[in-house]
Design a protein that fits this description.
Layout: H1 14-21, E1 64-67, H2 91-97, E2 109-115, H3 121-137, H4 159-170, E3 176-183, E4 185-187, E5 195-198, E6 211-215, H5 216-219, H6 238-244, H7 250-254, E7 266-271, E8 274-276, E9 286-287, E10 291-294, E11 296-302, H8 320-334, E12 339-342, E13 347-350, H9 351-360, H10 362-369, H11 382-407, H12 417-424, E14 431-433, H13 442-451, E15 461-465, E16 484-486, H14 489-492, H15 500-510, H16 512-525, H17 567-577, E17 581-584, E18 587-592, E19 610-615, H18 623-638
Parallel strand pairs: 2-3, 2-7, 3-6, 10-17, 18-19
Antiparallel strand pairs: 1-5, 4-5, 7-13, 8-19, 9-10, 11-12, 14-16, 15-17
Helix pairs in contact: 2-17, 8-11, 9-11, 11-15, 11-17, 15-16
Bound molecules: 2-acetamido-2-deoxy-beta-D-glucopyranose (5 copies).
One 2-acetamido-2-deoxy-beta-D-glucopyranose (NAG) binds near residues 204, 207, 647 and 648.
Length: about 650
């Protein structure tokens, strides 16, 4: 049975941090005690494998295919695309009243994997050369530890074929638009006419309309402004490509996901160690009513850290530095927050919003693409960025709509005494009581989905809707009978702040807790469903539609120009563009540190819907046993499955 939970009671568990993320850290070890670089992390490789294979002169080696590289590596200009939610026909009645209509346009999802064949000698040699080059650059007595990406990140036991089978078996075929595999490529010859892309040997790529194998060269892009002066721009970024492709850094590769052409409105992003174990439906990923489903681990906080701040106590090659840097970027744009970690399973990404975020931070994103290993230089975590950007923009849109479009009724940008009274109406006592509304109950979610012609989620509880407010609202203990937050009018709405822009900036960013509580107040005012109290009336002053500005792409809230007088349609559209759900599902993240950990894999009596398995075996002794055990487990699950993209009779390690 579905059930609503409190998701925002927030305690960072230090134990959890220690165990999960700082585990392999030689905590206070002096610098010179770090292990020396491991140049042959994958396998020792004979030197001449660095020579690229030449398909033109003979047979293409197994596991590779030739393709024509793109003419240009320059980033295309950003174009605003509507999100899936914005395509709902009854936007106004749904956003304002919570009255749904049939969703004429059905959502589809692209399942996207990033994959590297860890035992491919050409790639291993390329990687070793990159590690050697990077190590050579780090000379001097205070040389930081450089181990290159750990070899375990690349060890495989047949994950990829089984991950794809698991998705094929569990997701409705009508929901999946395409299966997309993003893999490495290397130069094939000196003429630059062809490159070679890695393809799993068991894969039949003939049905390109539904299965797309893309290579790094096909998505890695650089903004022209980020190319070094010395670079010859006439070659349209090809020198840049040659420096940074192929990439061995998952953050660098993920940073380029927004550049995959012609994506469905939603991406379900998997690493090859992610699996779905139970049948799921569209609403487990997204719906046009409620938006994308994010799965967030609320007991694990991520603090913002500016580039250059101390990395003491952090595993530089882990995922933590990228998360902290990304949160700092979000702090600059939306105000300082301890945002929360995303559950370590496959992720849902709203594509138009991901592209918007990538456009805002395009320099930071291309810098990330240029980082060939984790932990060296600031690196954006695209998945974390997209998720929290969506949540923050929804909050911003609510406050913008109320303060700048509704409360400033004549849209002159200044609060008259009468307008100011409307603004702070009901806040005089300072206490805003809080209750989850009827409209967000499991019953109404099911009914609304049904009215929209959609199935209920099969394996997800919708714990928190974006129309429940800002999930990080801090001053609130939601599970107490007297749940409330407080607004001090003198602090949140100082009399000196006369323009609507000043008030909005103060409430939304400078004093974030004011904005969080104001949202709760207005949600209560809106009644059991909908967000009516945030919206300007339909007759509100409104600029002509050809004057509607494109989305702001500034990186800091102080630089964004928020305009008065945009009217009701604009407000409704912005709010619903960033609609989202926070959900929980039966899920498990398993780190295999010892061979016996295999026993903790889910079995039939202990099913989860979403699983991620990391091979983190510390000792080389158990590798063969672990390989056997994993293959046995995969065979039990998907041994009988043959997806249409699997070649007949191929060996499927
Ligand atoms: C990875 O590369 C090795 C060496 O070429 C090959 O034997 C193996 O089959 C490849 N694995 C896949 C899944 O393509
Ligand atoms: C008005 O708001 C701005 C934020 O835009 C803030 O920096 C400023 O201190 C406020 N002024 C007064 C007089 O409260
Ligand atoms: C608004 O708050 C009041 C006071 O707590 C409560 O009685 C009422 O039910 C709330 N309204 C909604 C729609 O949640
Ligand atoms: C299934 O997994 C659970 C939890 O990991 C374990 O307690 C149980 O013994 C397992 N059952 C079987 C039949 O292996
Ligand atoms: C690949 O799939 C096509 C049909 O889509 C089929 O005709 C062909 O025989 C397959 N090739 C192999 C090697 O399985």
């Amino acid at each position: 049975m579905l059930r609503r939970r409190n998701v925002a009671v927030l305690l960072v568990s230090i134990t959890c941090l220690g165990v999960l993320f700082f585990r392999s850290l030689p905590a206070a070890a002096p610098i010179d005690k770090y292990p020396p670089p491991r140049l042959h992390a994958v396998k020792p490789v004979v030197e001449n494998t660095l020579v690229p294979p030449k398909p033109a002169n003979g047979k293409t080696p197994d596991g590779w295919r030739p393709f024509k590289p793109p003419d240009s590596y320059l980033l295309k200009p950003f174009v605003v695309e509507p999100s899936l939610t914005q395509r709902l026909p009854c936007l106004d009645s749904w956003v304002s009243q919570g009255k749904p209509c049939v969703a004429t346009e059905r959502g589809t999802v692209d399942a996207v994997w990033t994959w590297v064949n860890g035992s491919e000698p050409i790639l291993a040699a390329t990687r070793n050369a990159v590690v050697a080059e990077a190590t050579a650059k780090l000379q001097g007595p205070r040389r930081p530890p450089f181990r290159g990406a750990r070899s375990t990140h690349f060890r495989e036991h047949g994950e990829m074929i089984n991950s794809m089978r698991s998705v094929w078996k569990s997701m409705p075929s009508t929901l999946v638009n395409k299966y997309i595999l993003l893999t490495a490529d290397v130069s094939a010859d000196d003429t630059e006419e062809l490159r070679l892309g890695s393809v799993p040997i068991w894969m039949n790529t003939s049905q390109e309309s539904r299965l797309q194998v893309l290579h790094h060269s096909e998505v890695f892009r650089v903004p022209e402004t980020s190319l070094p002066e010395a670079d010859n721009r006439a070659n349209k970024g090809r020198e840049w490509r040659d420096r940074y492709v192929p990439s061995f850094n998952s953050l660098a590769i993920e940073s380029q996901l927004p550049n995959i052409p012609q994506l469905a409105p939603t991406v379900f992003y998997l690493n090859d160690d992610c699996f779905i174990l139970k049948p799921v439906s569209e609403a487990d990923f997204e719906t046009p009513l409620y938006g994308p489903v994010f799965r967030i681990q609320f007991n694990l906080g991520v603090k913002g850290k500016s580039p250059g701040s101390s990395m003491m106590g952090v595993d530089k090659e882990g995922e933590w530095p990228g998360l902290q840097y990304t949160n700092w970027l979000l702090d600059e744009r939306f105000g300082k927050r301890e945002r929360r970690y995303l559950h370590h399973i496959a992720k849902v990404l709203p594509v138009p919003i991901m592209r918007e975020a990538a456009a805002i931070w395009k320099e930071e994103v291309s810098q990330t693409a240029e980082s060939r290993f984790r932990g060296h230089g600031p690196q954006v975590n695209m998945v974390f960025l997209t998720t929290w950007y969506t949540i923050e923009k929804h909050r911003e849109s609510l406050l913008y709509s109320f303060i700048m479009l509704r409360a400033d009724a004549n849209a002159d940008g200044v609060f008259s005494p009468a307008e100011r009274r409307t603004l702070i109406n009901g806040l005089e006592s300072g206490k805003v009581s809080f209750s989850l509304r009827e409209g967000g109950s499991p019953h109404w979610i099911d009914v609304n989905l049904q009215r929209a012609g959609l199935d209920s989620p099969k394996e997800t509880e919708y714990d928190w809707l974006s129309s429940d407010g800002y999930p990080l609202i801090a001053t609130l203990k939601k599970n107490t009978p007297d749940a409330h937050c407080t607004i001090d009018v003198a602090v949140c709405f100082p009399a000196g702040n006369a323009t609507s822009l000043d008030v909005f900036r103060r409430v939304a960013f400078e004093k974030g807790e004011c904005g969080d509580c104001l949202i709760s107040h207005l949600i209560n005012r809106s009644g059991p469903t909908g967000l009516a109290a945030f919206l300007p009336p339909s007759g509100a002053p409104s600029v002509p539609s050809d004057e509607i500005p494109t989305l702001p792409l500034e990186r800091r809230w102080k630089d964004v120009v928020f305009r008065s007088g945009m009217g009701r349609n604009y407000a409704v559209n912005m709010i619903h563009r960033y609609n989202y759900v926070i959900g929980t599902s039966p899920m498990q993240f398993l780190e295999l540190r010892q061979v016996k950990d295999v026993r903790r894999l889910p079995n039939v009596t202990n099913p989860v819907a979403f699983l991620a398995v990391n091979d983190d075996l510390r000792s080389p002794l158990g590798v063969a046993q672990l390989d056997l055990d994993m293959k046995t487990w995969y065979a039990q699950r998907w041994g009988g499955v043959r997806a249409w993209w699997e070649k007949e009779g191929a060996k499927k390690d």
